[in-house]
Amino acid sequence: MVDHLLARVLEMDQIDVKRKFTDEEQATLIIENHRLYQHCVLRVNYTMYDNRREQDTINPRTWPDIMMLSGEDNNDKHAHPY
Questions:
Q1: Cα angle at 60 between 58 and 63, to 5 degrees?
Q2: Which long-range contacts does 28-33 make (Cβ < 8 Å, 24+ apart)?
Q3: Is residue 26 within 8 Å of 7, Cβ to Cβ?
Q4: What is this structure's pTM?
Q5: C-alpha distance from residue 28 to each of 36, 46, 74 (Å)
Q6: What is the pLDDT of residues 7-33, one digit of tens each?
């Protein structure tokens, strides 16, 4: 789990997420009080093309359909864009 979190914090590509980090690299990830919290709702703030600020709410319990990037290799001509 530490490898997955560290790859996300370092904003690595999806392909690199499966990389195994060294003990020294893993030690750079500090989780206060060794606690992680699960949240039921994600709120995303963003600026629209006309500079208005908006917010979207994602709740997987009421609307579980979320489209995200596939994380496939972009050099593959058969890779799906989603």
A1: 80
A2: 29/2, 29/5, 31/5
A3: no
A4: 0.45
A5: 17, 30, 30
A6: 878 877 665 556 788 889 888 888 889
